[in-house]
Amino acid sequence: MSLELTPVQTVACCSPLTREPLSAPEAEGIAPLLKALADPVRLRLMSLVASHEGGEACVCDLNDAFELSQPTISHHLKLLHEVGLLDREKRGVWVYYRARTEALTNLAALIGGQAK
């Protein structure tokens, strides 16, 4: 039985792209994370959450930034959570999201070639 890494765990384990080539399994593991960020709505959501006061945002804080329904925004946030870029916590009727800054730092190091 092999242990399967999440996209965020895979990024954390990889050397920068400029240091050595990714293996096929590493590339397969990281691709879902990059695909999640490749959507303009999800990229903006990631930015809004990460830069929000206190480092977290409620779905109710994010709806007005888009001409999309609340269920659509929630779907995009769910995808970012599933790949490991956002943590979430339900408080009452609202869900609050927090950027996993270590995941963003590891992704930047992978792409930018900075030693971790």
Structure description:
With 116 residues, the chain is of the alpha+beta class. The protein has one domain (20-109): Winged helix-like DNA-binding domain superfamily/Winged helix DNA-binding domain (Arc Repressor Mutant, subunit A, Orthogonal Bundle), CATH 1.10.10. It is 54% helix and 13% strand. It has helices spanning 7-13, 24-38, 40-51, 59-62, 70-82, 101-112; strands at residues 56-58, 86-91, 94-99. It has a three-stranded antiparallel sheet with strand order 1-3-2. α3 packs across α5. The two termini are 29 Å apart. Keywords: DNA-binding, Transcription, Transcription regulation. GO terms for molecular function: DNA binding; DNA-binding transcription factor activity. InterPro entries: ArsR-like_HTH, ArsR_HTH, HTH_ArsR_DNA-bd_dom, HTH_MetalResp_TranReg, WH-like_DNA-bd_sf, WH_DNA-bd_sf. Residues 22-116 form the HTH arsR-type domain. This is Putative arsenic resistance operon repressor ArsR.
Q: If you consult CATH, what is the topology?
A: Arc Repressor Mutant, subunit A
* Count of individual beta strands: 3
Element string (H = helix, E = strand): HHHEHHEEH
Architecture (CATH level 2) name: Orthogonal Bundle
Give the number of helices. 6
Indicate the radius of gyration in whole angstroms. 15 Å
